[in-house]
């Protein structure tokens, strides 16, 4: 094989990083945020495959299309999202999705969030308002999440200021990260799992999501 | 993102492949396994799917990426192949129900997997 000398293809052949033959249980975590906030970078820094990109159909109105109905020919367009994966064990594989946070992509979220363990909201402090809609929708859908501030500049508002600007509930973890670093992205995901675990301990009726 | 970029594309392309149907019952991370090899007369998309998941399972969303087809289009193809016994699907079993938390055993497994990275 001359694969070591040729240019890497846009998407690596599946044969390079196949799932285990025993894989049977796919899990999901969604990373959501505005354009350029570092979603693809974060997915790529922890993924065992180079992030893959794909697309889904959406109507121009931003709605899904009903299951039985025909695809409306004039109103259909597509929206791209990317993903990576982490093999957890022989049976389970965790998929990480990078999803655009803007309102018009909400229909895609429904599909991504259905069955997701939880979400990471990535925030760029220069454009905090980009995150408002995502946080609002997550709260509305009672999808647990943590917020990670991707620091693009040395200086920026303190986490306390970010928390206030996001009007974030005191229970929701807010941490700094550098999405380019595997250890940092890993820490964000681990924080999400800890958060989910803590939510189990809350007395029934009390809900910090 | 790229919603704008694709606006010029002809949706009829998708309409042709799917016959205009949609199906959301296959999760993005459902894992697909080929049960038979490609046969004469199959569409090129079916042949590619069977080749991709011949040896190991492949998630619906990965098939979509490798075929460069929207997820809902791939779902329609898979539904037909499932009905014909050409593939089987391993559905997610640890995904939480709507508004429920993932169970603690699942969270433990995720934590172990992340620490092993
Ligand atoms: N300084 C800095 N740059 C970052 C960080 N994360 C991502 N970037 C850069 O920001 C740009 C946009 O990141 P990308 O992951 O494509 O954003 P996306 O649109 O949310 O997927 C890329 O050039 C990244 O290299 C970070 O933590 N710090
Ligand atoms: Mg991206």
From TrEMBL, chain A:
UniProt entry tagged with the keyword Coiled coil: no
Keywords: GTP-binding, Hydrolase, Nucleotide-binding
Entry-linked Gene3D superfamilies: P-loop containing nucleotide triphosphate hydrolases
GO molecular function: GTP binding; hydrolase activity
Record Pfam families: ATP_bind_1 (PF03029)
Entry similarity comment: Belongs to the GPN-loop GTPase family.
Protein name: ATP/GTP-binding protein
Automatic annotation (TrEMBL), chain B:
Database matches in InterPro entries: DUF742
PANTHER family: DUF742 DOMAIN-CONTAINING PROTEIN
Highest taxon listed in the record's lineage: Bacteria
Protein name: DUF742 domain-containing protein
Pfam families: DUF742 (PF05331)
Protein source organism: Actinomadura harenae
Lineage of the species this protein comes from: Bacteria, Bacillati, Actinomycetota, Actinomycetes, Streptosporangiales
């Amino acid at each position: 094989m001359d694969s070591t000398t040729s240019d890497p293809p846009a998407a690596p052949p599946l044969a390079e990083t196949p799932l285990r033959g025993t894989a049977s249980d796919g899990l999901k975590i969604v990373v959501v945020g505005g354009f350029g906030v570092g979603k693809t970078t974060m997915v790529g820094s922890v993924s065992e495959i180079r992030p893959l990109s794909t697309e889904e159909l959406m109507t121009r109105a931003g709605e899904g299309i009903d299951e039985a109905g025909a695809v409306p020919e004039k109103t259909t367009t597509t929206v791209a999202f990317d993903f990576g994966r982490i093999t957890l064990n022989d049976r389970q594989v965790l998929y990480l999705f990078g999803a655009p946070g803007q309102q018009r992509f909400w229909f895609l979220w429904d599909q991504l969030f259905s069955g997701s363990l939880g979400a990471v909201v990535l925030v760029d402090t220069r454009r905090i308002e980009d995150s408002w809609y995502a946080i609002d929708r997550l709260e509305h859908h009672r999808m647990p999440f943590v917020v990670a501030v991707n620091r693009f500049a040395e200086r920026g508002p303190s986490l306390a200021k970010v928390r206030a600007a996001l009007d974030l509930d005191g229970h929701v973890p807010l941490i700094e990260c550098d999405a380019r670093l595997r250890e940092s992205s890993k820490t964000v995901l681990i924080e999400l799992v800890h958060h989910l675990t803590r939510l189990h301990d809350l007395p029934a009726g009390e809900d910090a999501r | 993102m790229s919603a704008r970029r694709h606006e010029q594309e002809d949706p009829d392309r998708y309409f042709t492949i799917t016959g205009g149907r949609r199906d959301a019952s296959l999760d993005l991370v459902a894992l697909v396994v080929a049960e038979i090899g490609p046969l004469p007369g199959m569409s090129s998309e079916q042949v590619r799917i069977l080749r991709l998941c011949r040896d190991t399972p492949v998630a619906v969303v990965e098939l979509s990426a490798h075929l460069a087809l929207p997820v809902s289009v791939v779902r329609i193809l898979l539904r037909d192949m499932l009905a014909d016994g050409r593939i089987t699907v391993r559905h997610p079993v640890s995904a939480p129900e709507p508004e429920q938390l993932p169970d603690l055993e699942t969270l433990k497994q995720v934590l172990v997997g992340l620490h092993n990275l």
